[in-house]
Structures are given as structure tokens and as C-alpha cells.
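Write out this protein's structure.
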Amino acid sequence: MATHKIEFNTAVSIVIANMIGTGVFTSLGFQVMGIQNPAAIIALWLIGGILALCGALTYGEIGSAFPESGGEYNYLSKLYHPAVGFLSGWVSITVGFAAPIAAASVALGSYISKIYTQVNPLYLAIAIIILITIIHSYTLKAGAAFQRVFTLVKIICIVMFVGFGCFHVPNHEISFSVNQNTLSSIFSVSFASSLIYVTYAYSGWNAAAYISGEMIEPKKNLPRALLVGTLVVMIVYTALNAIFLYSVPIDELKGVLEVGYLSANKIFGNHLGQFMSLVIAILLISTISAMILTGPRVMQSMGKNINGLNFFAKTNKNNVPFIAIIFQSAIALILVCTSSFESLINYVGFTLNIFTLLTVFGVFILRKRFKTQNNGYKTFLYPITPLLFIGILLWVLINTFISKTTESIAGLGTVMAGLGIYYLTNRKKVTSKL
């Protein structure tokens, strides 16, 4: 029986679906607590988009050279050392996918409970994770079709939201002009700290890299999918946040999780606004679906290479890594029941960015040590592209550690725990080398 392969359009939809979700509909309320200048906030999202584009362009070259599923686990194992790749895979299992699945599910439950107060947001979040897990545990073909449909609906609804928002007449004064306050805000600690929310919102631009082994012509389609998906999302994010700021006073946005709900009520009125908020909540299903689809491929790749984790590599008759999918969803369910939304975002953002930075830096190693394999796509404007990414991300990580020390230490603790597990699962190999 022929194995179903992922087409270019599906790969793009997975990138878009992974990116457009929890972050853009929830993080603005936390950003305006430190930044009140509208132009600076728009700059925040533009810089986040440029960062994601630089990352996507660089990942395109690395993914073209190593076109197997597994993402950073695959890349870092080859570019640095299997231990570094393992740590990346470990973080992907515990943080990279399970935690954002939990955050998206919590956000969905929060949006729905605002409209239907009788609905328990926790129970709804749990039910959504279980339902989508069942769909993706059966067959890749059904999961891919589910993904394409929900992503298309998501883009149409967001375009409609932005379109109607442009014709809304706000009751408050709002200006997106750049002034001295804009510049001082951009170079502030609050701006750098807020970028962690933005990088979280943009996380997912590398999603296609996790399933490249199941793509049609990955050397050609992987770089294109990363670039096209990221460009679409950058435009959508900037427009959507401009509408949020345009329709709702900043004072009303501060600390609010459901910014889309507030904006929809201002633009469409209470009843139609509730319907649009319901649509936003449903759109989060696409994000949850995309992460449940891609994350287990990292575990599957690790299971093929590490004897102690080989149960993750087991597949069903449709070649789907169902054990890895169920394991990831189980972690997500635990996080749904135990974590707060804000601390979860900071913890996820800091920890993931460590390995994203290492991967982008790996393009320099790739060009020096793997010249024979690096015969496909080449990073646009190299070396400016990766250096810009590394510089911005280092600035974000340093400021995040200063302002969100507890969550940052928790992230580093997760990495160290992974190092211990690597030693245990590879103890024989390590001992023989010694």
C-alpha cells in the first residue's frame, strides 16, 4: 500500500496553522502592559516577522541539506553532536509542542466560556485535545485533509475580520505615527521582554521542517513552504494587531487574554461580536491540530535512533506514530490542568528560542563541514540573514532572563533534565567511549 505524502499546499497550511493561533489572539494584552505606543507595538510585530523570515530562510538551507523528518533534533544531531540533538528533541517533546497545545486549548476554552458561560473551559480544552488526537492517530491522509480545510477557513475569517475592522470608527483617539516615544519604547527593556510573546506567536514558522521526510520533493518544497507560510503570517499578524489597537483602547486591553473577543464586540456589536469570537475560538482548533500532527514526528525520529526510546517509533497500519501522538497529548493534558497561561508562554518562548538560535547558527557549520550535502537551496542574503536572527534573538533571551527569571530558570532546568535522560539512555555508548 502506497504511503501518503504531504504536498506543498499542505506543508504551507501546516506552517500557517502552527503560527496563527494562540499568540496573536492572546498576547497583545500582556504587551500593552509595558508598551503603550501603538507604532512601537506594530514595530514589535514587524520585527518578530523579520526574525521569523530570517529563521525560515536559514532553516530552508539546513532542511534542504538534511531532508528528513525531525526538525531541530535531526539538524542539531548532525551539525553539533547527538547529545545536542537529543536535548532539542527532549525540549520539543516536553515544551515545544505539548505546552503550546495546552496554551491554545486553554485559550479556546476561555473564548468559548466568555460567550457560553455554562461551558467549563477546562473540560472543553481537554475534550478538544482528545478529539484531535484520535483523528491524527488514525491516518496521515485524514489528518492532512482536516488541516487544509481548517487552515483555509482560518485565513478567510481573519481576512474578513481585518476587512470589517478597517471600516470601524473607533470611540477613542489612536495614532500609528512614529514619534520620539516610539523610538524610546523600541529600545526599552519592556520591548525586548514583549518580543518573547511575539516570538511565541510566530513560533511554528519551522513546522514543515518536522515533517520534511514525508513531503513530496522536500529539497524543493521545504524552503518554499517555510518562506511562503511565514510571509503570509507576517502580513496577517501586523494587520490583525493594528485592528485590535484601532478598535479597542489600550487601557481596556491591558492584561486581557481574550483580545479578539473585545475587538469583535467593538467592531460588530455584542451579538455579532460574540459570533466572531466563537469563530476565532474554532480557528484555534487548526493550531492545536497542526501541533498534534507535527510534534510526534520528532519523537518518532528520536525513537528510530535511540534504543531506550524506540517505542516512540512504532506506527500503526497507516504508518502513523500513534504512541508518540498519544504521549505528547498526555503531557498537554497535564499542562492544561496545572499551568497558568502567562508563565507557560514565557517558559515556552525562552526554552525553544535557545535551540532555534543554535539551529540558525548551524548554517555556518553546514557550509564549512558539509559542503557535499549542501547542494540545494541557499539562504538569501547570507550571512546577513542568520547574523540578524542571532543578534535579535540573543537580545530577547538576555532580557527575558532578566525580566522573567523564574520561567527562564525553569526552561534551563528542563534542558538539564534532558541531559540526564540522554546519559541514561546512552549509558552503554558513553561508557564504551570512556
